[in-house]
Protein backbone atom coordinates (compact mmCIF):
# COMPACT_ATOMS: atom_id res chain seq x y z
CA UNK A 1 0.00 0.00 0.00
CA UNK A 2 1.26 3.46 -0.86
CA UNK A 3 -0.05 7.02 -0.89
CA UNK A 4 -0.54 6.59 -4.63
CA UNK A 5 -3.40 4.17 -3.89
CA UNK A 6 -5.52 7.18 -2.99
CA UNK A 7 -5.00 10.45 -4.84
CA UNK A 8 -5.77 13.95 -3.61
CA UNK A 9 -5.81 16.89 -6.01
CA UNK A 10 -7.24 20.39 -6.12
CA UNK A 11 -8.88 21.83 -9.20
CA UNK A 12 -10.09 25.35 -8.61
CA UNK A 13 -12.19 25.30 -5.45
CA UNK A 14 -12.81 21.56 -5.69
CA UNK A 15 -10.82 18.80 -4.00
CA UNK A 16 -10.77 15.47 -5.83
CA UNK A 17 -10.33 12.26 -3.86
CA UNK A 18 -9.67 9.31 -6.16
CA UNK A 19 -9.47 5.65 -5.13
CA UNK A 20 -6.47 4.67 -7.22
CA UNK A 21 -6.33 0.87 -7.06
CA UNK A 22 -7.50 0.09 -10.55
CA UNK A 23 -5.72 -3.27 -10.71
CA UNK A 24 -7.61 -4.30 -7.55
CA UNK A 25 -10.94 -3.01 -8.93
CA UNK A 26 -10.51 0.01 -6.64
CA UNK A 27 -11.14 -2.19 -3.62
CA UNK A 28 -10.64 -0.42 -0.32
CA UNK A 29 -8.10 -1.69 2.22
CA UNK A 30 -7.43 -0.69 5.82
CA UNK A 31 -4.62 1.59 4.72
CA UNK A 32 -6.77 3.17 2.02
CA UNK A 33 -9.46 3.91 4.61
CA UNK A 34 -6.89 5.79 6.67
CA UNK A 35 -5.70 7.76 3.64
CA UNK A 36 -9.29 8.54 2.70
CA UNK A 37 -10.01 9.96 6.15
CA UNK A 38 -6.82 12.02 6.07
CA UNK A 39 -7.75 13.42 2.64
CA UNK A 40 -11.16 14.51 3.93
CA UNK A 41 -9.55 16.20 6.94
CA UNK A 42 -7.16 17.99 4.60
CA UNK A 43 -10.04 19.21 2.43
CA UNK A 44 -11.97 20.33 5.49
CA UNK A 45 -9.09 22.46 6.78
CA UNK A 46 -8.33 24.05 3.40
CA UNK A 47 -10.40 27.25 3.16
CA UNK A 48 -9.90 27.34 -0.61
CA UNK A 49 -11.74 24.01 -0.95
CA UNK A 50 -15.48 24.58 -1.21
CA UNK A 51 -16.59 21.18 -2.54
CA UNK A 52 -15.23 17.62 -2.57
CA UNK A 53 -15.61 15.11 -5.41
CA UNK A 54 -15.07 11.40 -4.75
CA UNK A 55 -14.39 9.02 -7.63
CA UNK A 56 -12.43 5.96 -8.70
CA UNK A 57 -9.53 5.56 -11.10
CA UNK A 58 -10.21 4.33 -14.61
CA UNK A 59 -13.61 3.78 -16.18
CA UNK A 60 -14.47 0.23 -15.13
CA UNK A 61 -15.04 0.31 -11.36
CA UNK A 62 -15.77 3.16 -8.98
CA UNK A 63 -15.20 0.93 -5.93
CA UNK A 64 -15.80 -2.79 -5.48
CA UNK A 65 -15.93 -2.59 -1.68
CA UNK A 66 -13.57 -4.15 0.82
CA UNK A 67 -10.37 -5.75 -0.36
CA UNK A 68 -11.05 -9.32 0.72
CA UNK A 69 -7.36 -10.12 0.36
CA UNK A 70 -6.37 -7.68 3.09
CA UNK A 71 -9.40 -6.69 5.16
CA UNK A 72 -11.23 -9.86 6.19
CA UNK A 73 -9.85 -13.07 7.61
CA UNK A 74 -6.88 -11.36 9.27
CA UNK A 75 -7.91 -12.09 12.84
CA UNK A 76 -10.76 -10.87 15.03
CA UNK A 77 -8.92 -7.92 16.55
CA UNK A 78 -7.64 -6.63 13.21
CA UNK A 79 -11.02 -7.14 11.53
CA UNK A 80 -12.76 -5.16 14.27
CA UNK A 81 -10.37 -2.25 13.72
CA UNK A 82 -11.01 -2.26 9.97
CA UNK A 83 -14.78 -2.44 10.39
CA UNK A 84 -14.77 0.44 12.87
CA UNK A 85 -12.46 2.53 10.65
CA UNK A 86 -14.78 2.02 7.68
CA UNK A 87 -17.82 2.94 9.80
CA UNK A 88 -16.05 6.07 11.04
CA UNK A 89 -15.18 7.01 7.44
CA UNK A 90 -18.81 6.70 6.34
CA UNK A 91 -19.82 8.99 9.20
CA UNK A 92 -17.07 11.44 8.29
CA UNK A 93 -18.32 11.64 4.69
CA UNK A 94 -21.98 11.84 5.72
CA UNK A 95 -21.35 14.59 8.29
CA UNK A 96 -18.82 16.47 6.14
CA UNK A 97 -19.45 20.20 6.40
CA UNK A 98 -18.69 20.97 2.76
CA UNK A 99 -20.76 19.65 -0.18
CA UNK A 100 -19.73 16.22 -1.42
CA UNK A 101 -20.26 14.82 -4.90
CA UNK A 102 -19.72 11.21 -5.96
CA UNK A 103 -18.76 10.70 -9.60
CA UNK A 104 -19.62 7.08 -10.35
CA UNK A 105 -17.54 6.36 -13.43
CA UNK A 106 -17.63 2.57 -13.09
CA UNK A 107 -19.37 -0.26 -11.28
CA UNK A 108 -20.21 0.49 -7.65
CA UNK A 109 -20.55 -2.51 -5.37
CA UNK A 110 -20.64 -3.48 -1.69
CA UNK A 111 -18.69 -0.98 0.44
CA UNK A 112 -18.41 1.36 -2.52
CA UNK A 113 -22.15 1.86 -2.14
CA UNK A 114 -21.47 3.32 1.30
CA UNK A 115 -19.11 5.96 -0.09
CA UNK A 116 -21.65 6.86 -2.75
CA UNK A 117 -24.68 7.11 -0.47
CA UNK A 118 -22.79 9.11 2.16
CA UNK A 119 -22.29 11.88 -0.41
CA UNK A 120 -24.77 14.72 -0.96
CA UNK A 121 -25.00 14.41 -4.75
CA UNK A 122 -24.35 11.31 -6.86
CA UNK A 123 -23.74 11.40 -10.63
CA UNK A 124 -23.39 8.10 -12.44
CA UNK A 125 -22.64 6.84 -15.93
CA UNK A 126 -25.76 5.26 -17.37
CA UNK A 127 -24.23 1.83 -18.04
CA UNK A 128 -22.60 1.08 -14.68
CA UNK A 129 -23.78 -1.67 -12.33
CA UNK A 130 -24.73 -1.32 -8.66
CA UNK A 131 -25.38 -3.85 -5.94
CA UNK A 132 -24.66 -5.33 -2.53
CA UNK A 133 -23.33 -8.83 -3.27
CA UNK A 134 -22.07 -9.50 0.26
CA UNK A 135 -24.70 -12.21 0.86
CA UNK A 136 -23.21 -14.20 -2.02
CA UNK A 137 -20.02 -14.78 -0.02
CA UNK A 138 -21.70 -15.37 3.33
CA UNK A 139 -21.49 -11.78 4.56
CA UNK A 140 -24.07 -8.98 4.83
CA UNK A 141 -24.02 -5.24 3.95
CA UNK A 142 -24.04 -4.09 7.56
CA UNK A 143 -22.74 -0.51 7.92
CA UNK A 144 -23.91 0.57 4.48
CA UNK A 145 -27.37 -0.72 5.40
CA UNK A 146 -27.85 2.39 7.55
CA UNK A 147 -27.24 4.58 4.50
CA UNK A 148 -29.34 2.40 2.21
CA UNK A 149 -32.29 2.83 4.58
CA UNK A 150 -31.81 6.61 4.45
CA UNK A 151 -32.13 6.60 0.67
CA UNK A 152 -34.28 3.62 -0.31
CA UNK A 153 -37.75 2.48 0.74
CA UNK A 154 -37.55 -0.50 3.09
CA UNK A 155 -38.95 -3.19 0.79
CA UNK A 156 -36.64 -2.29 -2.08
CA UNK A 157 -33.73 -1.95 0.33
CA UNK A 158 -34.35 -5.42 1.77
CA UNK A 159 -34.73 -6.93 -1.70
CA UNK A 160 -31.42 -5.37 -2.72
CA UNK A 161 -29.51 -6.56 0.34
CA UNK A 162 -31.08 -10.02 0.72
CA UNK A 163 -30.82 -11.09 -2.91
CA UNK A 164 -27.46 -9.49 -3.68
CA UNK A 165 -28.43 -9.06 -7.32
CA UNK A 166 -26.95 -6.56 -9.75
CA UNK A 167 -28.86 -3.35 -10.44
CA UNK A 168 -28.72 -1.10 -13.47
CA UNK A 169 -28.08 2.62 -13.13
CA UNK A 170 -31.71 3.26 -14.07
CA UNK A 171 -32.90 0.96 -11.27
CA UNK A 172 -30.57 2.66 -8.78
CA UNK A 173 -31.88 6.04 -9.88
CA UNK A 174 -35.51 4.97 -9.46
CA UNK A 175 -34.72 3.61 -5.99
CA UNK A 176 -33.36 6.99 -4.89
CA UNK A 177 -29.68 6.05 -4.70
CA UNK A 178 -28.55 8.46 -7.43
CA UNK A 179 -29.10 12.12 -8.22
CA UNK A 180 -28.89 11.66 -11.97
CA UNK A 181 -27.40 9.44 -14.67
CA UNK A 182 -25.82 10.48 -17.95
CA UNK A 183 -23.84 9.01 -20.80
CA UNK A 184 -20.12 8.56 -20.40
CA UNK A 185 -19.23 11.44 -22.68
CA UNK A 186 -21.38 13.81 -20.61
CA UNK A 187 -20.48 12.61 -17.10
CA UNK A 188 -17.28 14.64 -16.80
CA UNK A 189 -18.91 17.82 -18.10
CA UNK A 190 -21.96 17.44 -15.83
CA UNK A 191 -19.74 16.76 -12.81
CA UNK A 192 -17.70 19.89 -13.48
CA UNK A 193 -20.85 21.98 -13.90
CA UNK A 194 -22.18 20.86 -10.53
CA UNK A 195 -18.83 21.32 -8.78
CA UNK A 196 -18.56 24.85 -10.20
CA UNK A 197 -22.13 25.64 -9.17
CA UNK A 198 -21.52 24.43 -5.60
CA UNK A 199 -18.20 26.29 -5.38
CA UNK A 200 -20.01 29.51 -6.31
CA UNK A 201 -22.37 29.28 -3.33
CA UNK A 202 -21.70 30.75 0.10
CA UNK A 203 -19.38 28.36 1.98
CA UNK A 204 -20.70 29.44 5.36
CA UNK A 205 -24.29 29.20 4.17
CA UNK A 206 -23.83 25.64 2.90
CA UNK A 207 -21.92 24.65 6.04
CA UNK A 208 -24.59 25.95 8.40
CA UNK A 209 -27.30 24.44 6.23
CA UNK A 210 -25.75 20.97 6.26
CA UNK A 211 -25.14 21.17 10.00
CA UNK A 212 -28.74 22.19 10.58
CA UNK A 213 -30.21 19.36 8.51
CA UNK A 214 -27.95 16.82 10.22
CA UNK A 215 -29.07 18.07 13.64
CA UNK A 216 -32.79 17.50 13.04
CA UNK A 217 -32.65 13.87 11.87
CA UNK A 218 -34.00 12.45 15.14
CA UNK A 219 -36.18 15.36 16.21
CA UNK A 220 -39.95 15.74 16.05
CA UNK A 221 -41.46 17.97 13.35
CA UNK A 222 -42.14 20.75 15.85
CA UNK A 223 -38.62 20.63 17.32
CA UNK A 224 -37.12 20.49 13.85
CA UNK A 225 -38.95 23.61 12.68
CA UNK A 226 -38.00 25.56 15.81
CA UNK A 227 -34.34 24.53 15.57
CA UNK A 228 -34.20 25.44 11.87
CA UNK A 229 -35.73 28.81 12.70
CA UNK A 230 -32.79 29.51 15.02
CA UNK A 231 -30.35 28.27 12.37
CA UNK A 232 -31.89 30.63 9.80
CA UNK A 233 -31.34 33.48 12.23
CA UNK A 234 -27.70 32.39 12.52
CA UNK A 235 -27.05 32.21 8.80
CA UNK A 236 -28.87 35.50 8.13
CA UNK A 237 -26.29 37.29 10.27
CA UNK A 238 -23.33 36.18 8.14
CA UNK A 239 -21.46 38.53 5.83
CA UNK A 240 -22.24 36.23 2.93
CA UNK A 241 -25.98 36.57 3.54
CA UNK A 242 -25.72 40.35 3.49
CA UNK A 243 -23.58 40.19 0.36
CA UNK A 244 -26.01 37.81 -1.33
CA UNK A 245 -29.04 40.00 -0.66
CA UNK A 246 -27.18 43.14 -1.69
CA UNK A 247 -26.00 41.50 -4.92
CA UNK A 248 -29.56 40.38 -5.67
CA UNK A 249 -30.90 43.90 -5.23
CA UNK A 250 -28.07 45.33 -7.31
CA UNK A 251 -28.61 42.68 -10.00
CA UNK A 252 -25.04 41.37 -9.93
CA UNK A 253 -23.29 38.12 -9.05
CA UNK A 254 -22.45 37.82 -5.33
CA UNK A 255 -18.88 37.58 -4.11
CA UNK A 256 -18.96 35.13 -1.23
CA UNK A 257 -16.04 34.96 1.20
CA UNK A 258 -17.27 32.29 3.60
CA UNK A 259 -17.75 34.69 6.50
User: Strand order of the main beta sheet, please?
Assistant: 1-2-3-5-7-10
CATH hierarchy class name of the largest domain: Alpha Beta
Radius of gyration: 19 Å
Mass-distribution shape: globular
The biggest beta sheet, please? 6 strands, mixed
**What is the second-level CATH architecture of the largest domain?**
Alpha-Beta Complex
Strand content: 15-25%
The domain count comes to 2
Helix content: 40-55%
Main structural class:
alpha/beta
List unreliable stretches of 5+ residues. Answer: none
CATH level 3 topology of the largest domain: 2-enoyl-CoA Hydratase, Chain A, domain 1
CATH H-level superfamily of the largest domain: 2-enoyl-CoA Hydratase, Chain A, domain 1
- Spell out the helices and strands N to C: EEHEEHEEHEEHHEHEHHHH
Instruction: Please count the helical segments.
Output: 10
Overall pLDDT score: 93
Could you walk me through the main structural features you see in this protein, from its secondary elements to its overall organization?
There is one protein chain. The protein has 259 residues and is of the alpha/beta class. It folds into two domains: 197 residues, 2-enoyl-CoA Hydratase, Chain A, domain 1; 47 residues, Lyase 2-enoyl-coa Hydratase, Chain  A, domain 2 (Orthogonal Bundle), CATH 1.10.12. Helix content is 48%, strand content 16%. The protein has ten helices and ten strands. The strands form two sheets. A six-stranded mixed sheet has the order 1-2-3-5-7-10, with helices on both faces. A hairpin with a 2-residue loop joins strand 1 and strand 2. Helix 2 packs parallel to helix 3, helix 3 crosses helix 4 and helix 8 packs antiparallel against helix 9. The longest helix is centred in the first third of the chain and has 19 residues. It is globular. The mean pLDDT is 93.
